[in-house]
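Researcher: I need the complex structure. Ligand is protoporphyrin IX containing FE. Inputs:
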Amino acid sequence: MSTIDDNASLPAGSPVPATVAPAAPAPVEPIPAAAPAQAAPPVPPVMTGKPAKTRYDGLAMGFHWLLAILIICTFSVGWYMADLPFSMTRLKLFNWHKWAGVTILALSALRLLWRLSHRPPADLPMPGWQKFGAHAVHWLLYAAFFAVPLSGWAYSSAAGFPIVWFGVLQLPDFVSPDKALAATLKEVHGLFAYGLGLLVLAHLGAVVKHVVIDKDGLLQRMLPGRA
Ligand code: HEM
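Model: Output:
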């Protein structure tokens, strides 16, 4: 019986014999029913090629230590200058205190942006209440980084002393001069500042416990060096 392949042996131009049978349709493979869509299994961090972070990144450390020094110094100057008699020294210290406060505010805004866009290292193993306490203190500290300088700025504006940052950049007054409001804002600024002081003490107490009792390497996570 002839098949299509037989035509290959016909001389060129020969009419195709009428007896040539049409090609049989190729058998159609049954298409298996589509498998139900499955969610891709989560890729463990080790398979992404990136090892899990065990310490803060360089910029987070830079912000931490720069702000820690600035905040401790500004707090100490604020405490010292408040009871000084009127003098050039008092005026100078007030200005330095305000300039440092605005610098802390600006750096804290950058730090918060960095923190919200970069994951910190995973918590070290510790009881749930300690993890909760550490996170609560960290976020309250972040809140205080804004509340303390902003209340000081508002107090200065209400008292009628606009802030000229490092004697160069005049900052807007977001509160009009008002003696009664200034007295209230002075109290508020002081309360926020003492609140920040207490948070720092709680933070330092926790760090000392991790270093002295737990010896779990917590401090190394915030220090430059090898992982
Ligand atoms: C000698 C002083 C200080 C030491 C030894 C210290 C140490 C540390 C350490 C080890 C961590 C990381 C904790 C962890 O791995 O979970 C940390 C985080 C932090 N510290 Fe300090 N600290 C000091 C002072 C301060 C001060 C003065 C402030 C602020 C006023 C501060 C604010 C913070 C904040 C907000 C975090 C959380 C960082 C984040 O997750 O974004 N620290 N500190």
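Model: Summary of the prediction. Residues 64, 67-68, 71-72, 115, 120, 134, 138, 141-142, 200, 203-204, 207, 218-219, 221-222 surround protoporphyrin IX containing FE (CB under 6 Å).
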